[in-house]
């Protein structure tokens, strides 16, 4: 990937991460990137959300949530 | 490429699951179960439920943030989103909306999960292990009665390991697709075409059914078919209305359609243009699907058949009304069309009422225009024969009576009969003034009237629904113009004076003039009719006028008085054919028409006869006055003859008295009870007459009452005949009386002569007697002959008089007998006067 594209991708991810924090989704950066990739491939976002919800709801929500006051990229 | 993508997907999913379940060992069965589960979920819902509009989703997120009170968060989010959305090119996210949507759902889920409610009804609970399953089932059951929302409207009542629901959904989807060959959008578009009268792809005009319908070959569910058919009724109505309009417009050049019809078409076209506007808007909407931001709305076009039916409900009502009107008005025109439309406007529904009102305003404007111009200017601009006033070309003198009349067929029902009469009269008055009276003053009256009524004399002042305004305008105009007309008639044309003149001359009101006339004309008229020249009579008339008070009358009036000789046969005397006539010119001959003058003539004849009889009697009186000649005769004659003479004389006197009594009273009755009373009534009515119609009616009444009361009417025929018999008898009497007195004078003269000639009385009497019968041989006879002659003569005369008297009495008796029987007039005055001593009723109890 050329650096331009890489930068764009990084910035997009940052923005998305920031938005997801505002919305308080509880997703970390990596998971979010995976989800974005899956969306780009054409999967139904409703289905993905369902998956996330299902899998997150069984065990007690373990991964500590990143602090809402995350660093501003 | 596909497989690569698939692999990528799987890898990513694995990664995701790992991420989400960090504490799990990637190789545990739980992990694989979860993985399987995740894959199943992902494969089940393939289509998103909302349309891919990233902006809309961002908006909704912003709104949600704002409503939750985090306005700063909302602003930050907005900022981020703009930056995110602006990133394009390689390396950026392509499915932005998907990402946003994802984030949105996740955050919402988290929120609801945090709030303790568990909306896990989206998918079947697979139950990862028994405990969990049991828990979850309990949770499910427990939360059953508390749950409120339904994600997809499907209540899960049992676990479904085989995913039967999925299968049935899919089957249903296939079925629907199969049945609906045609999508709803296409149908909607077709229906919209049908509403404009154009055949669509699947909806065509079926002449068997007489309407638009879906083709049978198209497979659609019955419900759709029915709703399409209902909506296409609008198309059928539209066709009808448009057909009428184009048909009418084709007939315009042929001048077949009237002004009202044209106005109707114009109004309909306006309504149709409104309709077209609505259809254009609907068409535009049917092309563009409007996206909805609420989650649970279905995608697809905004305009479904149901929405269309809601939108088209109001146009349907209006179009139905228009079609009904078109049906009714196909064969009507003018005022009749306005009437029938007005009938339909009597409706309670405000929508219908307003619609009809507007339509009627347009339709009736030509009619109101015509009324206005008729009432204010007397102009009848009616090219298509639609107005309810029809004019005919007539001569000037019948203009008032026959020139214009109402045409009831064209009278609109919102103009009442009395108002129509007034309108007719006002216009007629203006025309009458213009044509017959040469008067221009009515224009001022018209403008005044218009100002008073609050409208102007220009066009377009009035409209339908303002019947009150029209009425007030008409009233004002009528009032002023009538007054003006009466002014003109009275002042310029001196109607009253002419009426009075007619009364004085034709109805013999001017006594001294009549006396002179009779004196002068009398001897002339005794000749046979064909020897009399009317010029001579005219000269005599002139001299009569000059010698009486009539000479001081207005020369214009005297000018019009003429002698008329009626058409006569060979045996007629002048008395039968003589009459006077009065020449009433335009405009007064509207009142004094030919028939009216004929009636005056009849009355004149009657009165003239009566006068003649009176004149005869007076003449007889002159000879019957006691004078020395007759008294001298008493002394000279023999006793028997004297007695005869006395009795004859007495008989004559008595008869004369009776006749005179009769004639005088009859004359009095006619002159005062009939003529004067009628005249005073007529004068009073002339004072209060408000327009020419009133005047005509009053005059009619006047004449009628005169005719009836003087026994000239049809119902008094028998009485009239007996009256003439009496007149004849009276004239005979005059003749006899004359003869009698002539005889007596002769006798007297002979007696005097004989007394001069001989010393013997008898001799002279004889001589005189002889002379009375044969003038030549009188002297030769002696006194005896004279006496004999005298007695014979007197006897004859006596007998004649007796006969006359009996005849007279019997006629009079029959006349009097008929009098009380006449119910229709007040003859009791006459009877009272004739019989005031009850002489006749005592003599003949039947009277």
From TrEMBL, chain A:
Span of the signal peptide: none
GO BP terms in the entry: gamma-tubulin complex localization; microtubule nucleation by interphase microtubule organizing center; mitotic spindle assembly
InterPro entries: MZT1
Keywords (A to Z) from UniProt: Cytoplasm, Cytoskeleton
Any Pfam family hit: MOZART1
Gene Ontology CC entries for this record: gamma-tubulin ring complex; interphase microtubule organizing center; spindle
Keyword Acyltransferase: no
Primary localisation category: cytoplasm
Compartments it resides in: Cytoplasm, Cytoskeleton, Microtubule organizing center
Residue segments, region Disordered: 54-73
Family stated for the protein in its record: Belongs to the MOZART1 family.
Protein name: Mitotic-spindle organizing protein 1B-like
UniProtKB/TrEMBL annotation, chain B:
InterPro entries linked: GCP (IPR007259), GCP_C (IPR040457), GCP_C_sf (IPR042241), GCP_N (IPR041470)
GO molecular function: gamma-tubulin binding; microtubule minus-end binding
Coiled-coil residues: none
Domain Gamma tubulin complex component protein N-terminal: 188-491
A Gene Ontology cellular-component term: microtubule
Example GO biological process: cytoplasmic microtubule organization
Top-level taxon in the UniProt lineage: Eukaryota
Gamma tubulin complex component C-terminal domain: residues covered: 497-840
Name of the protein this chain belongs to: Gamma-tubulin complex component 3-like isoform X1
Species name: Durio zibethinus
